[in-house]
UniProtKB/TrEMBL annotation:
Required for the formation of a threonylcarbamoyl group on adenosine at position 37 (t(6)A37) in tRNAs that read codons beginning with adenine. Is involved in the transfer of the threonylcarbamoyl moiety of threonylcarbamoyl-AMP (TC-AMP) to the N6 group of A37, together with TsaE and TsaB. TsaD likely plays a direct catalytic role in this reaction. Its EC number is 2.3.1.234. Binds 1 Fe(2+) ion per subunit. One of its GO terms (biological process) is tRNA threonylcarbamoyladenosine modification. It comes from the Bacteria. It catalyses: L-threonylcarbamoyladenylate + adenosine(37) in tRNA = N(6)-L-threonylcarbamoyladenosine(37) in tRNA + AMP + H(+). The gene is tsaD. Its cofactor is Fe(2+). This is tRNA N6-adenosine threonylcarbamoyltransferase. It holds the Pfam family TsaD. It comes from Spirosoma montaniterrae. It is an enzyme of class 2 (transferase). Belongs to the KAE1 / TsaD family.
Length: 332
């Protein structure tokens, strides 16, 4: 079975080929155009997808050494994501499936982030818990099977990736700021400054309060010392990261306790964060969890995870009609 998969939900145009259970290529074209605007501009994202999609798919097929005639199915991200961006991938995938006369498979982007854990060993066993943390989502998911997932907790406002990116913006860092906070935090003291973690009942999260707290903190300090951010950047980044990671960890521990599940995975763009990776690993040692952390290239958006999810759907006989349209707000 050979599957070509396309991911175009946000600002990465990606194509991957999965052949006989192995990822053979995973090409990602990142759109740098958004950096100067401090966030993803949907219209520019769609145009960039349109430019990138053909060369990216061709390259994925060439690198995998799989000719088009040997493909068994075409997979694409149906949602959630930006409508204009999703439309480019969906239309391309439909046309390709039609032209090659092979089945089409729709994939839920958030499900795919979780199924990225099955690309290579060690693979989690069912049931496991996954903390999915990205630029648009923060979810605690109980995973009972490859296509059987239940959200048991989620953010009520901003996603944690958004909290990272918005904090970075307040610090004058370019978009996306999450990876930069991670980098500067390495040289800082995580306990230098304290930010409120807020109270959220049950397994839900809230990240809008901390963003406001950081805004006032920076305003007050730069009033006294205009060079405050430059002089203390590492400590500020380390403290912000520490707070966000602790907020995630508190709920993850609670979810593990309440469900009795000790197979714990993290997924999504923010799972590339070194502070989170370390904290989850350490909690695993303390609490007897088996921890699963994806390789960096499978944390942020990529089509390999879409191909992986598509393989499970192919095996389950879940194919998609040509009449389907993208779903910007698709639920898990
Ligand atoms: O999963 P993803 O690539 O796209 C979405 O589906 O949203 O996640 C992107 C998010 C961005 O908010 C980005 O800042 C964040 O992941 N991110 C990080 C790191 N790498 C990516 N946040 C903190 N530390 C990182 N190392
Ligand atoms: Zn994503």
């Amino acid at each position: 079975m050979n599957i070509v998969a396309i991911e175009s939900s946000c600002d990465e145009t990606s194509a991957a080929v999965l052949a006989n259970g192995q990822i053979r290529s995973n090409i990602i074209a990142t759109q740098l155009i958004h950096e100067q605007y401090g966030g993803v501009v949907p219209e520019l994202a769609s145009r960039a997808h349109q430019q990138h999609i053909l060369p990216v798919v061709d390259r994925a097929l060439a690198d995998a050494g799989i000719p088009k005639r040997d493909l068994s199915a075409v997979a694409f991200t149906r949602g959630p994501g930006l409508l204009g961006s999703l439309l480019v991938g969906a239309s391309f995938a439909k046309a390709m499936a039609l032209g090659l006369n092979i089945p089409l498979i729709e994939v839920n982007h958030m499900q795919a982030h979780i199924l990225a854990h099955f690309i290579e060993a060690p693979r989690p066993a069912f049931p496991f818990l996954c903390l999915t943390v990205s630029g648009g989502h923060t979810q605690l998911v109980r995973v009972d099977g490859p296509l059987t997932m239940t959200v048991i907790g989620q953010t009520q406002d901003d996603a944690v990736g958004e909290a990272f990116d918005k904090s970075a913006k307040l610090l004058g860092l370019p978009y996306p700021g999450g990876p930069l906070i991670d980098r500067y935090a390495k040289d800082g003291n995580p306990l230098a400054y304290r930010f409120p973690m807020g109270e959220m009942p049950g397994l839900d999260f809230s990240f809008s309060g901390i963003k406001t707290a950081i805004m006032y903190f920076l305003r007050d300090n730069t009033k006294q010392n205009p060079d405050f951010i430059n002089q203390h950047l590492a400590n500020i980044c380390a403290s912000i990261q520490h707070t966000l990671v602790q907020m995630l960890l508190t709920k993850l521990k609670r979810a593990a306790r309440e469900t009795g599940i000790s197979q714990i995975a993290i997924a999504g763009g923010v799972s590339a964060n070194s502070g989170l990776r370390m904290a989850v690993t350490q909690a695993g040692h303390e609490l007897g969890w088996t921890v699963f952390i994806p390789r960096f290239e499978y944390c942020t958006d990529n089509a390999a995870m879409i191909a992986m999810a598509a393989q499970f759907k192919y095996e389950a006989g879940e194919f998609t009609d040509q009449a389907i349209s993208p779903m910007p707000r698709m639920e898990l």
